[in-house]
Amino acid sequence: MPTEVIPPAHLEYLPDRGEVVCKGDWTIEGIKQIEKNFNLLIKKLKANVVLNGENIEKIDSAGAILLFDLLNQMKKAGKPATASRFRPDGQSLLSMVKEHEEIVLQKLKKQKIPSWLYLTGKWVCDKSVEMLQFIAFVGEFTTTFYNVLRRPSHIAWKAVLVVIEEMGYQALPIVGLLTFLVGVIVTYQIAQELSPYGASSYIVDVTGMIIFREFGPLITAIIAAGRTSTAFTSQIGTMKVNEELDALATLGVPPYERLVLPKFIGLLIALPLLTVWANVFGILGAMLTSKVELGVGYIAFIERFQYQIEVKHYFVGLVKVPVFAMIVALVGCFQGFQVEQSADSVGRKTTKSAVQSIFLIIVADAIFTIVFNIRGI
Question: How many CB atoms are closer than 10 A to CB 105?
Fold first, then answer.
């Protein structure tokens, strides 16, 4: 036999009998549309009507709350009504709702959308607090670094070597590949501009200077920010979630000396070496493209490179690298210590570490460029 379909909840006003008859399905599924009609119904009503519930097919707590709300709205409009002829299940639900009247009538306040001024102020305050925390972190690390320099035997050299291997040696393939491709792409773009003027030989001067001064150090530092800084954050953050940092403090082992310092020293050694590696592969990419696009032979490229590219360009690039290494190491470790007691926080701080490191690296590179330009270097 087909299942009987119960119509949704609806109300029928019988003015001659002074009743509002409730009909249909008064469950959470059946009352979705009826509340919209309450205001129109209340305007038509006379005072002292009866809310008749004998024709309600189904009812649950949601329907009972809605009926109770209707009775209250009618009362506030000066047209009080009484509930009558409800079945036992409906009557018991209405009684239960009335017993908890204070909770039922408590409306959830609509959340106001914060103004742009509030959001801007909150953002500034949050960033100011984070900046002060970072300054405090750098200050504490500087104190630790100074104390350890007076006692080099306290440096965990084994941990330093592990950092050099993982963040330096194991990064050789990706750094070499990316800088080679950057050398190829940059040289190709420049070749398209130089070839119409017959200035093919100048490709060596331009690409050599760009790779040594900018792309070699910058690409290496960005790779380190995405690869190394995030690794530092996730490692320290996971230790904090697992309460391993508290265990180190209980054992009397300074976390900065054991965790931050080896990473700082290791990256300070590894990143300049990676930059030299990146410069070599960037120049190889430039040589290949110069040969293919402009017909500049490898020997001719090397000879012109030897005479036209000054050593200062090489050192200008290398001078930036220790600063980039400090940024990557300190930001990565700082965000690791900022992790809260949740796995979700580890992911958020890891992402933040990469973004902040890359941003600060580019800012530092811009400052170096301006200073070198002013000094005529």
Answer: 12
